[in-house]
Write a structure and sequence with these properties.
alpha+beta, about 775 residues, five-stranded antiparallel β-sheet
Length: about 775
């Protein structure tokens, strides 16, 4: 006698075999899809990131070349100025000219003039005057027509500029011959440009990505030496393998294995110079660890596998339901046949919606019992009416029950496949429903989440507020969040916080109502907003360097430092200079807005008296008022001359001059603008009042909005928004009172220091107290 061993439980019926087939097919399909998607995603991500790294390298090279071109052009223009080589001019006058150039660009380390004998005749700040530089490469190269030199250390100069520094400073040389009064070469004007300039250029482009993606950038000279990069590589010479196929291209990327054994994606761009600046053959390499770069693909693979497992389970359940639906008529016929054997002679209903084989089998069984049915016709006629009514009611009840079950099932399916997380909470604050999106969002499985207090979904600092809201609704039946879409901070089971948009509604008004909450993770949207702010800040910051050069150049033209201009040309130069100044102010305003939004304004606060601040602001704006026949006055309320507060003096001066400028702009000629310092209930108040036309009612809600203009104003529309941000950064408050046709008063309330005895605080006006 043999005993057959079974290691796997096999299905007993058709329904089990069909469910097993559904499961195996869904698992196989999942693995095929995951393999294909992973390969395609890897190729796409590698290409996208590689091109992005190459583009970063191109941007860095472009900024390096443009920056060097500006310095190259600036020194070339300086060398052409005849007064520079005029030996009849006093040394102090020539040194002052060089000092102006040094102060125009903070990365200049040294600038000076050396005669043909190599002796430094005059230098900015007097550094190295009298020193012999005839053996310095930049001196001889300038006379031979080579005007720019590569990065080098300046051991003598750094001891004068930074004697406490731990390592020598590095510079890039720019030098041109200059001419004397007779038009003949008299020597060389040379400038040492600090190499920290290149590091700042690198950081401005790469720094936003270093923390999140661990991107590293290197600046390499024409011989492959790392001029700027990671500490472990700086000063070393890269092997030829590290340069790879990229060495002969302007821009490209490839996957490489570096000497540290790590795999990297490397993007590269070569310096080609800019305009008449010939370039130094620099190359920029931007690399990213391949594992970090392909992390999104790994996450996609895990997500696809998880989704596949979920689909396999779903198809298994669906297969079981389909198998039961297919086998149900067969079981019903088997039961009917058993009933016939027991003496039941009822006709068998094959079902109008059953498949053909079931209907044929039912018809055959009915023919067998037709004779029995005829013999009992009288009894059936007596009971037909009653049975018909009972059957009808039964069908109606079953249909109604099926409809209720189908509705509940549809609702569960809709909630389950919803893109947003769904949480249902009873009136006691306990979670009673939880879909898979909520599980993915917060990290708790459905069985773990059910019954938990809803305040566990928010950070610790907000939990008391959530509990108070639940208690408030139980007592008053009202809740401010109902029916509104709001943004809130929540946290997952590990305490990691992230922002969501949620909609809270009350479902049902019977004995068991509950709160229905849909949550949408907006982390990506917030990240995009941060990237937008970073982009605006980067663009604004990058505009400052060319604008500064333009402003200096236009100023030199307008002042006649490069030759006397005819009246028309001078007028054009003045117009260009004024517009350049306006662009600089607009860029500064954009930077201030970006810093305020990012929360990095960086106040330098200290205890200051308020009255001197107000007097300085009024004095600075009196000239503008006189141009428009408007008087600007400054005063303090009784006993408030010694009133002080903690604030950033320069930033608060910026706020007051902005408010005074607006007041003068909207005042009538012959009127007065008053600046007043007084104590208030909040501490200290500074008021700026005008007697102009006032602010229209329709515009008042947008007064502090960005780019808001009253009428056809020519300003940027950022001033009042910046004022509001600066005041609120100080913990203060800014508001206004206005009456059309009579004027406007802007009021700044600051937390004050010690209020002098006898100074009576003024109350808040009704319009502001509300």
């Amino acid at each position: 006698m043999s005993i057959r061993k079974s290691y796997l439980p096999m299905p007993r019926g058709l329904a089990g075999y069909m469910a097993l087939a559904f499961t195996l097919l869904s698992v196989l399909l999942t693995f095929i899809i995951v393999a294909v998607v992973e390969q395609k995603a890897t190729d796409h991500v590698e290409e996208t990131i590689g091109r992005g790294l190459a583009e970063l390298a191109v941007q860095t090279v472009d900024k390096l070349d443009r920056g060097m071109y500006e310095r190259y052009r600036e020194i070339a223009l300086l060398a052409r100025r005849r007064e520079l080589g005029d030996e009849t001019r006093p040394i102090e006058t020539r040194r002052e000219l060089l000092d102006d150039v040094l102060s125009s660009y903070r990365y200049y380390g040294w600038i000076g003039l050396a005669g043909l004998d190599g002796k430094v005749e005059v230098a900015g700040r007097g550094l190295l005057e009298g020193a012999d530089v005839s053996q310095r490469p930049w001196f001889g190269n300038a006379l031979r027509g080579q005007h720019v030199g590569d990065v080098h250390e300046a051991k003598l100069l750094y001891r004068l500029l930074a004697p406490q520094a731990k390592e020598p400073m590095r510079f890039v040389d720019v030098a041109f011959p200059y001419l004397g009064r007779d038009g003949k070469p008299k020597g060389v004007v040379g400038a040492h440009l600090s190499w920290t300039w290149a590091k700042d250029v690198q950081q401005s482009i790469i720094a936003p990505l270093e923390a999140s993606r661990k991107v590293e950038a290197m600046i390499v000279d024409a011989r492959g030496k790392v001029l700027l990069g990671p500490a472990a590589l700086q000063g070393t010479r890269l092997p030829a393998a590290a340069m790879g196929k990229l060495a002969n291209r302007d821009r490209s990327y490839e996957q490489q294995v570096w000497p540290d054994g790590q795999h990297y994606l490397v993007g590269m761009a070569s310096s080609q110079g800019y305009a008449d600046y010939p370039g130094l053959g620099w190359k920029v390499l931007v690399r990213e660890n391949l594992d970090t770069a392909l992390a999104p693909v790994q996450r996609l693979r895990r997500y696809a596998l998880a989704s596949g497992v979920g689909l396999a389970l779903l198809f298994s359940v669906a297969g079981a339901f389909v198998a039961r639906w297919i086998t149900r008529p067969l079981k019903r016929l088997a039961g009917a046949a058993g009933s016939l054997r027991e003496g039941d002679d009822q006709l068998i209903d094959g079902g109008a919606r059953s498949y053909e084989e079931v209907r044929e089998l039912a018809a055959s069984l009915n023919r067998l019992v037709r004779d029995l049915v005829l013999r009992r016709a009288e009894v059936e006629k007596l009971n037909a009416s009653l049975e018909k009514r009972v059957a009808g009611r039964t069908v109606e009840l079953a249909a109604a029950l099926d409809e209720v079950k189908a509705g509940a099932e549809r609702m569960r399916n809709i909630i389950e496949i919803a893109q947003d997380g769904y949480v249902a909470v009873d009136l006691d604050g306990a979670i009673i429903e939880w879909n898979s999106q909520a599980a993915s969002m917060f990290g708790w499985r459905r069985e773990e989440a059910l019954g938990r207090p809803v305040d566990r979904l928010v950070p610790e600092r907000f939990r008391d507020s959530v509990r108070r809201s639940v208690v408030q609704f139980g007592a008053t039946g009202t809740l401010g969040l109902l029916g509104r879409r709001v943004e809130r901070i929540v946290c997952d089971r590990d305490g990691a916080e992230f922002p969501v948009e949620l909609t809270l509604t009350l479902v049902g008004n019977g004995p068991r109502p509950f709160f229905s909450i849909f949550l949408h993770d907006i982390s990506s949207r917030k990240k995009v907003e941060r990237m937008k702010n970073e982009f605006i800040g980067t663009v604004s910051h990058e505009l400052r360097t060319p604008l500064t050069s333009m402003r200096v150049s236009l100023s030199l033209l307008a002042q006649g430092n490069v030759g006397q201009l005819d009246p028309d040309a001078k007028e054009l130069a003045d117009i260009a200079h004024r517009h350049c100044e306006r662009l600089v102010r607009l860029v500064d305003d954009m930077l201030d807005i970006q810093k305020i939004e990012a929360g990095v304004l960086g106040l330098n606060t200290g205890r200051h008296l308020l009255l001197p601040l107000a007097q300085e602001a009024a004095g600075a704006m009196r000239a503008l008022g006189q141009d428009r026949n408007i008087a600007v006055s400054c005063a303090s309320a009784g006993g408030c001359a010694e009133l002080s507060a903690d604030f950033d003096y320069d930033r608060m001066l910026q706020v007051l001059t902005n408010l005074l400028s607006n007041a003068i702009k909207f005042s009538q000629p012959g009127s007065q603008v008053e600046l007043t310092v007084a104590a208030s209930a909040a501490g200290a108040r500074i008021s700026v009042a005008d007697h102009g036309r006032g602010i229209p009612a329709a515009f008042r809600e947008r007064v502090f909005s960005r780019f808001a203009h009253q009428g056809s104003g020519a300003g940027s529309g950022l001033g009042l928004s910046i004022c509001k941000g600066i005041v609120e950064e100080h913990g203060g408050r800014i508001d206004f009172v206005s009456e059309e046709g009579r004027g406007t008063t802007f009021q700044i309330d600051l937390p004050a220091g010690a209020v002098p005895a006898g100074s009576a605080p003024i109350p808040n006006p009704p319009q502001l107290a509300a």
